[in-house]
Each structure stands twice: as C-alpha cells, then as structure tokens.
Design a protein that fits this description.
The structure holds two protein chains of two kinds.
Chain A: H1 4-47, H2 60-63, H3 67-87, E1 103-112, E2 135-138, H4 155-164, H5 181-193, H6 195-212, E3 221-230, E4 243-253, E5 268-271, E6 276-278
Antiparallel strand pairs in A: 1-2, 1-3, 3-4, 4-5, 5-6
Helix pairs in contact in A: 1-3
Chain B: E1 5-7, H1 21-24, E2 27-28, H2 30-51, H3 55-58, H4 70-75, H5 87-95, H6 112-131, H7 135-152, H8 159-173, H9 182-186, E3 193-195, H10 198-219, H11 222-225, H12 229-234, H13 251-275, H14 279-299, H15 305-311, H16 320-334, H17 345-348, H18 351-354
Helix pairs in contact in B: 2-6, 2-8, 6-7, 7-8, 8-10, 8-15, 10-13, 13-14, 14-15
The chains are: A alpha+beta, B mainly alpha.
Amino acid sequence: MPTVTSVCRILARIALTFFVVWQVVFLLTLNFLNVEKPLREAFKDWYWKDDLHKDVAVPEYLIGEGPIHKDYYEPAAKYTKRWSQLTGQPESWGLFAPTIMRVVPFPAVELRWDNQDWPDWAEPPALPTERQAAIVMLSDNEPIDRHCYAKFGMFRIRKYESEITTPYPHTVDGVFNPATPDWKEKISKKVREDPEAIRNYLRWRLEVWQRANPQLPAPTQVVLLVRGFEVPEPPGPQPWDWYDLGEHHMARWLPAAPIDAQKYQAVERFDPVSARFERVEK
Amino acid sequence: MDKPQFIGLAPLWPWPLSRWHWWAAPVRAERLAALRIGLALLLLIDVLTTYLPNATLFFGDDSFAPPGSWDWRRQVEPPDHWPPSSWNDVQEQWNKPPERWYWSALYHVADHRVIYLAVAAWAVALVGLLLGFCTRLNAVVVWILSTSFANLNTNIDNAGDLVRGITLFYLMLSPCGATWSVDAWLRGRKGLVVISPWALRLLFLQMVCIYWCNGLHKTIGDDWQQGKALYFVLGDLTLARLSYARSPLPVEWTYQFTRLLSWFVLTWEVTLPLLLIWRPIRRIALVFGALFHIGILCSMEIGFFPAYMLCLYLPLLPWEYLTDRLAKKTASASVQPGTAPAVDPIKSAGRESAFRQQ
C-alpha cells in the first residue's frame, strides 16, 4: 500500500519533471526569439543592401509578418516573457553587442544662483544678496585625469548615470556641433523618457553639495550637463587621446519653482538650437 | 560498504531520457554546495558594499526610484483584482492578464527604516544560505528580496544582477544544502551525498545560452566583424579600469592585440555549443571562458558581472575530490598501528563508475 508520503513524493517528482522540461523549452525559445529578430533584420539589410537584389521580393518572414510570426512566435514570446518576468529570468543577452558606444558621456551638474534664462511661468527667484559664481560638479565616476586613473567601485551609480545621459552621435574627427535638430531630438527623447530619473539625480547631487556647504544659500537653478569624450578611430593618434566633445546643457530643475506635475515633466529640457530651456508637456 | 545518500527529488524521466547519463545520473552534492557558497559569499559582499551604503539613495522616499515613480508604471502593471475576492475576479484576470509580470515585495515602500530592515534581512538570509543553515528557507528569502530590489530600481543593475537572480532561482528549488552545510551536520549526514543533476544541467544550459546569444548578437555588429570592438570597449572611460592612454605598447600594437582578442572572443562565443560536444575541447573552451571573465574583471569596472559569471563555473570543478581527500585523511588517521586498514568508503561506493561528472 503506498503511503501518503510516497504518493506526495511521486506527485512532486512529476511536477519537477514538468518544470525541468518547461525550463528547457523556455530557455531555448526565449533566447531564440531574442536573437531571431536582429539576425533576420541584419540578413535582410545585407542581402537587399544598395538595391543589389531589388528584383527579388523580400519574403514576408523576413519582414516579420506571416503565419510563423503571428501563430507561433507571438504567443511563444508572450508566455515565455511572462514566465521570465514572474521568475526573474530575463533572457536578453548582448554584452557590448551588436554596437559599441564610441562617445562616452558623463553627467555633470551646474549650480547657479542667478535668474538668467528664467522661465515666464515661474515666480522670480529670491536671489542671494552676495553674488555667487556658478559651479560645475563633475561625476565621481569621471576620472580627474583621463590619461592616468584606476577605477574601482561605484558601478551602480555609474549605471544610473548612463541611464540619464544623452548618447552622442558620431562625429568627424571629434568636431561636435550641438546646435542641430538631431542633438535636440536626442535631448528631447531622453528628457521625455526619464524626467523623474533626471530630477532625482539632480536632487541627490544638490543635497550632497548642500551637506558639504551648509553656509551657502540654496541655488536657484540646477542644470544637468553632459560631457562627451569620443574614442578615435583605431589605431588612434600618437600620443593616444580621446576627442573632447565639450560640455553641453541637457535639462534643468528649478528647486524653488515647483513645476505643475499634472501637466509638465519634472524637469525642463534644453533646446540647443534656440539655446533655451523649455517645459515639456506630459 | 557505505551507500550514497540521495538527497532531494529527481525528475521522473521517461525513456530515453532516463538512459541519458548527463540528465539522469546522480551527481555529488559538493558541486551544488560550491555554487551555493560562492554565490552567497559574493552576493553578501555585493549587499554590504554596494546596496547597504546606498540603500536610501537607491530605494525609498527621495531616492533614485521613489515609490510611485517611473518603476511602477513602466515595469509593472498591477492586477485589476488583487487579491481576487471572487471566482469572477480570477476568471477576468486570467482572460485579461497584465502585460508585464514583474513584481516586488517592496513596492510602495517609502520608509527608509523598512528599506534598511529589508537589506538587513537580505544579509542575514545570505549568511544562512552561505552556512547552509535552514538552507531552503534562506534561499527563498534571498531570492524574494533579491528580485524585489532588482525590480524596484532597474537603472542600477546590469547583466551580472540578472545572472545572480537566475542562479538564486535554481538554488531555491534545488537541495543546495545537502552537504557542506550546517543542515547536513545537524542531520548527522556522513559519507557520500548525491543529488539529481537537473539544477546544474539547467544552469549549464543557461550559461551556454548567455554566451551563444551574446555571440550571435556580436556577429551582426560591424565593430565585431572588423575587430574594433574591444578597442572601443577598452577606450570607454566609464568602464575601463585603467586608462587606455597609458598602454605601455605602441598604439598600433595595442590595437592589433585588441583586434585579435575581439575576433577570438567572437569565434569562441559563436562556436561554444560545438566546442562543448567533445570532452577534451570542452575543457579548453571552459577554461578560456573562465579566463575571459578574469580578464574582464581586471580590465573593466562593470561591477559583479564577471564574478557572478565565474560562479556559474564553480559546479564544473571537481569539488568532491576535496571531500574525498579529507575523508581519506581522516580514515588513515583513525587506523591504529598494527591493525588492518579500514575499507575506503569512497572507493567501495564505486565513485568513478557510479558518479561520472561533467
């Protein structure tokens, strides 16, 4: 006579068998789906590049349409992704792939005590009686001397900083012109995507600075800057160095002028074409 | 003759899977124990050095990810009916499930004291997991807290944290405290301890998926095809541990070296599933993999990613020899002069034949 324990044990073993089989299916399926799309698109771009095979129609599979995508890939992606999210197994592997950043951006924070470029929608700020010069605080992750440094730790803050800085476009021989619609769009996109993350970062940097300088008045403007350094095309110049792409405005937070959080994003974005900050509607 | 003790559950493999040695034959429990100890130790260092000093900067009120901020809206779509109050609620939720299934036990937690308490609980559970005390319970707590913190603020995590979460998921479900643990000592477990290899095999499959998908993504990148990739990676001021400008070699030589390395890494990752088929090549391929991560650890500051990846190699090492040697030493020490030598329990258990390892 099988005991209750032995029956439970057999049931548990059956459940474990299903789990292991499902895990194998899940791993293979989700990883396949994650590489299938970029590989398919890369093949399409390569084969039909420069109208080389313009007389050959692109199969619907390569465009990402058709029954295979609709009937198999979509449901498979839906269920495997849910399982990955539920169990904390996001299968999205692509370390330094397929492309690699050539321009390295660092955030910096500018503290200002003036009312320069002050917006119409905000009350005029209370300016300090003693005139304060603006200061720029570099990121702790930015080496003081980029030609000689050793980096240890702070990778989580660096990761956060990489999420709030605007990726630079490639330049020709390190000459970067920020007053372009392309750069404007990049700033807009970043501010639209992560306004709270930017504000939280600015607030933290301000708090750290205020703790270190309690005797100084609070600044009226806290501006996020981005400083870019481009890795030159290999093998690079002799002596080897990065192209310094300069320091550029990205977003602004006015601690003393609370923004209407219902209508607008938490920070203003910088328009490099008109060289002005502007509110972003939600 | 000592009979090996089997700990945990084994899947009920149907034929022909039941005949597949790699999936079905039990393995020595030391391999999983080594993974448990390695990961717990590493995560404990991670928690104490990166999470604890910045706990209120990363989580809670006025942090990088305050409750109700971007994380909840973007990562999680809470169920409409939770907890469900009727069968209709359950049915409706089933028919209209949320698009995203991320979760965190710490959502809406604003109080910094609760955050510190959760980090403290995480560290305590990690010590329990490391020592193998109440192993299953501690593994569950560690996994829940690890996933909860990871989903609270994804802006501070990288691929290493994903590897950590996945490994913890398997540790939680497997008998990782079967040996080298306080639990085993309290139960008076002695001699050979074996487990079903399913967790180790799934982790190995996971590792192969990581490398192969990385490799396939790299094949479509121009920088990888042209061998420029590692030159740009090592020139990245945010990641490189040392300044590229300080390279002791001439500029051209350094570039050619990174070029060869880029192609080598690409070839290794793309061909890895093939390299693993034949045992002698498999060992070389895996040694290269470990060296690759040690190289990343020395040349780049990308947090615990290389260390967590190296953890996945721990079950591939023959840890059981340590136990066996120790057992042999103890046995020979206990033999009195002039008496017959004791039977070697390990040899008599048929170690070589019964438990062929990876």
